[in-house]
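re: ur question from yesterday

yeah so i grabbed the chain u mentioned. its 163 aa long if i counted rite. heres the sequnce exactly as i have it in my notes:
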Amino acid sequence: MQDKSLETLIHGLNILIVDGNTFMRRLTRTMLINLGAKSVTEAADGLAALDMIRDNDPDVVLLEWDIPLLDGMELMRIVRSPGVFPRPNIPIIMLTDHAYRSSVNEALRAGVHEYLIKPTSPKALRDRLMSIVFKPREMMQLGECYVPEPRKVHVEPGMKKTA
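ran it thru and got these structure tokens back, copy pasting raw so excuse formatting
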């Protein structure tokens, strides 16, 4: 996919940044604008984020784990409640400094689509947005979790699957 068409797609996205740190929101906004985003809104806490998801209908949410009032995992549990919350399928990228494997696994079980460790690069952010836009995954109930459908592993002809 050419960068121009990606820029056009990013240009059309309504993106919500949820981070309690003003500097990090500004830095993320700058990266998104440099990638071509025109509609970027911000929330400084979990309650404001819930209102903005309901009222502003963003296409993608960039969510920090450690936010005031409702942390990122509490917000995920509310948003990923089909039949209760109006936008349970919204794509969410966790953008955080929680770099432990257990944190990544917890976020994935909570239903995040992508996980990025801060500080991140514009390229990594662009790649995660590309995966959401070009390879969208349906949401599904997996036990008690409402999560994106697992990615399918592509096996090239002649390669063996290992157990």
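noticed a couple things. The longest strand covers residues 14-18. also The radius of gyration is 16 Å.
anyway ttyl
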